[in-house]
Design a protein that fits this description.
By secondary structure, the chain is of the alpha/beta class. Helices cover about 30% and strands about 25% of the residues. It has a single domain, classed as Rossmann fold (3-Layer(aba) Sandwich), CATH 3.40.50. The strands form 2 sheets. It has a 7-stranded mixed beta sheet. A two-stranded antiparallel ribbon has the order 1-2. Helix 2 packs antiparallel against helix 3.
């Protein structure tokens, strides 16, 4: 691990251990997810002025009106996605800071990630490359349409909230695949786990959450 990945003071390994203990106390059970949270340098994904807060269990601004998700939410969504086994190809809607992307890339074989804001995806690409993660494909695109050139994913994770689950994403979920997605209007959002079964789709509500809305178009 490179020296700036290790961190010092409020970004040190001791601070990360405190975060992981807190996540475990809040109900995160996957040792694989906790280990990746422990060893991924979240401070690289936020502005240098906020690096000292990187291992607090809170969302932080990353510019462009967006945030890096609270570590508990990242862990909860990742754990839910992996709950039925490790998916092969995972589609992420909303690259954002790239932190969730990096967590996924260390747990699954391939990550396809979309982001509508050019400035964010460029920054995320640079950080993911710095971390030597070579199993991520990036695309500057409207996330609601998914990745039409590859119509079938074993897992889909959505990091912005539509008011209803987009049917385009449902259609791109492989048989047996799982999608973790926040759904609803601001202040009334639910985190849902949708599994494609031979009989259709199983839909389970996991938690109450607060995400930025899923918007159309690219910037």
């Amino acid at each position: 691990m490179k020296p700036d990945h290790l961190g010092i003071g409020m970004t040190s390994q001791r601070t990360r251990e405190r975060l992981v203990r807190r996540l475990a106390e809040q109900g995160i059970r996957s040792e694989a997810v906790l280990e990746v949270i422990r060893t991924t340098p979240r401070h690289l994904f936020v502005d240098e002025a906020l690096a000292g807060r990187a291992y607090e269990d809170t969302a932080l601004p990353i510019g462009f009106g967006q945030t890096i998700s609270q570590p508990y939410v990242v862990a909860r969504m990742t754990e839910a996605l992996l709950s039925g086994g490790v998916p092969g190809d995972v589609l992420e809607i909303g690259t954002g800071s790239g932190y969730q992307t990096a967590i996924l890339a260390r747990l699954v074989p391939r990550v396809y990630t979309l982001e509508r804001i050019a400035g964010l995806i460029q920054r995320a690409q640079n950080i993911v490359a710095e971390l030597d993660l070579d199993n991520v494909l990036f695309r500057h695109s409207d996330g609601e349409m998914g990745w039409p050139a590859k119509p079938c994913f074993d897992g889909i994770i959505v990091t912005a909230a539509p008011e209803e689950v987009p049917q385009t994403l449902m259609a791109q979920l492989a048989p047996g695949g799982r999608m973790v997605i926040p759904v609803g209007q601001p202040g009334r959002q639910e985190l849902r786990l949708i599994t494609r079964t031979p009989a259709g789709y199983q839909d389970i509500t996991l938690d109450r959450v607060s995400f930025v809305p899923l918007l159309r178009g690219i910037l």
